[in-house]
Amino acid sequence: MPNHPAAQEPPTRPADAPWENWPPKQLDLTTSPKPGPTPAPSGSPYHVQGRNGRATRRDWWGELLLVVGLIVVTVLGVYVIGMILAAALHAGPAAADSDQVFSSPLADMALQLAALAAAIPAVLVGVRRFGRRPAGTVSSVTGGLRWSWLLRCVLVALPVMIVQFGLLLVWTGDEDGAMSSGQGFPGWPMLLLSLVVLWTLIPFQAAAEEYVFRGWLPQLTGRVTRSPWPGVVLASLLFALAHGFGEPTGFALLFYSAMWWGWLVIRTGGLEAVIALHTANNALAIGLAAALGELADDSTAADAPWQALVLEVVFTPLYCLTMARLADRHALASRTP
């Protein structure tokens, strides 16, 4: 038989030299993204921005407790800082039983506004931590304040509030000494200083109240109910109670306007329109108090007379319906893009 050469094994491939595998291949991390804030699905209205599929029932309670706790801590913290400054500068009130921190009504009013403004970061931190969504979704459905829309809102809100305040002053006049309870005109230098300080703080104070009562609370409630109205009603009631117990007409005014404002936020998909109106209202009210020397007066909107309620019944829906119409005209997003 013929002799055949034995089959030879194929030569093994030599091991790659170390430099042949350089640079090393990058790992594909797209299949396991790092957890982060998740917005609500496209088409979600404002009040259900918390329904992003990430937050659990435990997160709901965590967000509630964290936001409330942070609001209390930040507000008290601002007041503690104010008391330390008042003591260090010997600027406290002369009376030991006074409710004021500073003897100056201007400084005391500025402290109150700054304390309320501190609620904004409390809301944003709570939403981001336990809501597991972008904090900007409290501002609007687009994930942040829409600045051009906010400017349009200011241009409408300011003249509306000027007319409303003007009619109220003409209607009430000097009734019950309402216009003569203060110390009178403080002089131009003091008035200008007051306006600069207070008008700088008022937008943040007004925005903070809107972030809490028209933003966070309805969205927190919207995680357990599909309808926006339970959250709007609850937030409106708490908003009225937060201003204290005054006249029944004042409570009705606050609750009525808050209900309209809550509707407007849902309708326009953001807080811009109500921030503008709230800021204009407070700027005029506090500016008038500064001009009349009434900054030390502790009355609030809860003490509003019946004439103010009548005007509110007319002007609040007028503004809200106007802004809703403008939102349609400018194709403003009212749902998550």
UniProtKB/TrEMBL annotation:
GO terms for biological process: CAAX-box protein maturation; proteolysis. It comes from the Bacteria. Keywords: Hydrolase, Membrane, Metalloprotease, Protease, Transmembrane, Transmembrane helix. The chain crosses the membrane at residues 64-89, 109-128, 149-171, 191-208, 229-245, 251-266, 273-292, 304-327. GO terms for molecular function: endopeptidase activity; metallopeptidase activity. Residues 1-52 are annotated as: Disordered. Residues 194-284 form the CAAX prenyl protease 2/Lysostaphin resistance protein A-like domain. This is CPBP family intramembrane metalloprotease. It comes from Streptomyces spectabilis.
